[in-house]
Specification:
single chain; alpha/beta; Aminopeptidase; Alpha-Beta Plaits; 2 domains; 8-stranded mixed sheet; 4-stranded antiparallel sheet; about 35% helix; binds zinc ion
């Protein structure tokens, strides 16, 4: 592929209105994880309309489009991934194309991610002078349900072999026309845990000495988990453990010691060692404290999303592609660690690749609405730029046969 990024951008700008219409249509009809039926149908119909071989029903509601270039090829293939799901948030933007579904909203910009990848699919369907195969992956259920994991478990890369896989997320607070990335760990591993402390319970007023009391264990435990970060994790390694939910007993019976209390929370980390340490020490702390007070502890530690780790070679390729479009000074190649998690991490465990952040913009006063908030909106100004990134990346990866 010989087109320069500025010419690609100009061509995509020519049909930007179509991408904006698609983006706003998806925005107005948000669907949450594994229920992206309308969105998937729209994606599949659009891809087929451009003559792209399209596969539906992958990881329930996922779609994959496959496009072969016309140049002689050594069977090299790249996969480009967007996500399609919305969140359980009540939209408060008041926009004309705001969510029409009560309690659901595209508050993470996956409507925009889908439209940007469609924009690239259209360009490439009309400009097939590349060597190899592009797989356009539209995955379901990124927000907490692990659609990326399910795609991988279903054999995504056996069915659609790829030498590299790339992802992109919009980044509120980063200026329009700027990109950010870093090699190695970039986003956190996100786990959840639940501990159930059991005792006999009893009459808290008249006979506490006859009871074993899980509330006392719980009180010690909540303080003690913070010592895991402070005393078991090396101080140069980031880690978070937070309690998010506590329950037990009855508000109507303050004189009764409950036989069971439950505490749950989250844990974030960036290295497998730190993750192992958190799980091990959480168990030891819960079981040790329970034993001290004659109680029991049942620990359920759920490893949800692994750390998102960018592969160095593909990170350089992604940053280089972005720099060709917007200039080297607009591409941050060592952004700080992001405490959010992403299930694109499952795909990066299978294939080399990289995940890049594209600026969603900042208001003149420096403010912005972050993702997962009711006033957030994906910025249509970056649609054509995002599509140009994908197309330029394909040109870089599959431009000429080696
Ligand atoms: Zn999100
Ligand atoms: Zn997201």
């Amino acid at each position: 592929m010989t087109a320069e990024p500025k010419d690609i951008l100009a061509e995509i700008k020519g049909y930007e209105d179509e991408l904006i219409a698609i983006r706003r249509d998806i925005h107005a009809h948000p669907e949450t994880g594994f229920e992206e039926v309308r969105t998937a149908a729209l994606v599949a119909k659009t891809l087929r309309g451009w003559g792209i071989e399209t596969h539906e029903g992958i990881a329930k509601t996922g779609v994959v489009g496959t496009l072969k270039g016309t140049r002689p090829s050594n069977n090299r293939a790249v996969a480009l991934r967007a996500d399609m799901d919305a969140l359980f948030i009540e939209e408060k933007t008041g926009l004309p194309y705001a969510s029409t579904v009560p309690g659901k909203m595209h508050a993470c910009g996956h409507d925009g991610h889908t439209a940007m990848l469609l924009g690239a699919a259209r360009y490439l369907s009309e400009n097939r002078d590349f060597a190899g195969t592009v797989h356009f992956i539209f995955q379901p259920a990124e927000e907490g349900q692990g659609g990326g994991r399910l795609m991988v478990e279903e054999g995504l890369f056996d069915r659609f072999p790829a030498d590299a896989v790339y992802g992109m997320h919009n980044n509120p607070g980063r200026a329009v026309g700027e990109f950010g990335i870093r090699p190695g760990p970039m986003m956190a591993a996100a786990d959840t845990w639940t501990v159930t402390f059991g005792g006999t319970g009893g009459h808290g007023g008249s006979a506490p000495h006859l009871a074993t009391d899980p509330t006392v264990v719980l009180a010690h435990f909540i303080l003690a988990v913070q010592a895991i970060v402070g005393r078991n994790i090396p101080s140069v390694e980031p880690a978070v453990i937070s309690v998010g939910h506590v329950s037990g007993g009855s508000a109507g019976s303050p004189n009764i010691i409950p036989p069971e209390v439950v505490v749950s929370g989250t844990a974030r980390s960036y290295s497998p060692q730190v993750r192992d340490t958190i799980e091990r020490r959480l168990r030891e702390t819960a079981e040790g404290l329970a034993a001290t007070y004659g109680c029991t502890a049942a620990v359920d530690y759920n490893r949800r999303y692994p750390t998102l780790v960018n592969h160095p070679e593909q990170t350089d390729i992604a940053a280089g592609v972005a720099a060709r479009i917007v200039g080297e000074d607009k591409v941050a190649t060592r952004i700080p660690l992001i405490t959010g998690a992403e299930d694109f991490s499952f795909m990066l465990e299978q294939r080399p690749g990289a995940f890049i952040m594209i600026g969603n913009g900042v208001n003149p006063d420096g403010s912005y609405h972050y993702v997962h908030t009711p006033h957030y909106d994906f910025n249509d100004e970056i649609l054509a730029l995002g599509s140009t990134y994908w197309v330029t990346l394909v040109g870089q990866e599959l431009g000429v046969q080696e």
